């Protein structure tokens, strides 16, 4: 991930964490990359920061978000709020409103 993508990932992770109903944000990257990052973070005793996956391409970035949600609310509604918040941040950063954003739920707690 380039430094621009890493910075965007960190901003989007903070944005997602601020959405009501989100109880955690998980690494949305590929499994091997997640395992390597988790090992490094554990060894350095640091919290992961850029958990939202930002993948670049010739048509611009695509974004993947993997979250845990509260059982007190609707998982679908929380996903919609996360999608809206991520897209609003992307638009604020100058990306088009057609940027692909995928939100998945890994846990309801």
Summarize the structure.
With 109 residues, the protein is α+β, with helices and mostly antiparallel strands. It has helices at residues 3-17, 31-44, 75-92, and strands spanning 22-26, 53-55, 62-69, 101-108. Strands 1, 2, 3 and 4 form a 4-stranded mixed sheet that branches.
Write the layout of secondary structure elements.
Elements: H1 3-17, E1 22-26, H2 31-44, E2 53-55, E3 62-69, H3 75-92, E4 101-108
Parallel strand pairs: 3-4
Antiparallel strand pairs: 1-3, 2-3
Helix pairs in contact: 1-3
Number of domains: 1
Low-confidence stretches: none
The coarse overall form would be globular
Counting copies of identical and different chains, the oligomeric state is single chain
Predict the CATH topology. Answer: Alpha-Beta Plaits
Please tell me how large the radius of gyration is: 14 Å
What's the β-strand tally? Answer: 4
Describe it for me?
The chain has 109 residues and is α+β, with helices and mostly antiparallel strands. The chain has a single domain (3-108), classed as Cation efflux protein, cytoplasmic domain (Alpha-Beta Plaits, 2-Layer Sandwich). It is built from three helices and four strands; from the N terminus they run H-E-H-E-E-H-E. It has helices at residues 3-17, 31-44, 75-92; strands at residues 22-26, 53-55, 62-69, 101-108. Strands 1, 2, 3 and 4 form a four-stranded mixed sheet that branches. The protein is globular. The mean pLDDT is 85.
């Amino acid at each position: 991930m380039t430094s621009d993508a890493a910075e965007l990932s960190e901003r989007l992770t903070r944005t997602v964490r601020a959405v009501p109903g989100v109880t955690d944000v998980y690494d949305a990257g590929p499994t091997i990359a997640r395992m390597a990052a988790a090992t490094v973070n554990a060894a350095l005793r640091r919290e992961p920061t850029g958990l939202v996956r930002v993948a670049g391409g010739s048509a611009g970035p695509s974004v993947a978000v993997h979250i845990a949600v509260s059982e007190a609310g609707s998982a679908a509604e929380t996903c919609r709020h996360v999608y809206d918040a991520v897209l609003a941040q992307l638009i604020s950063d100058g990306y088009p409103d057609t940027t692909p954003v995928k939100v998945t739920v890994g846990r309801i707690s």
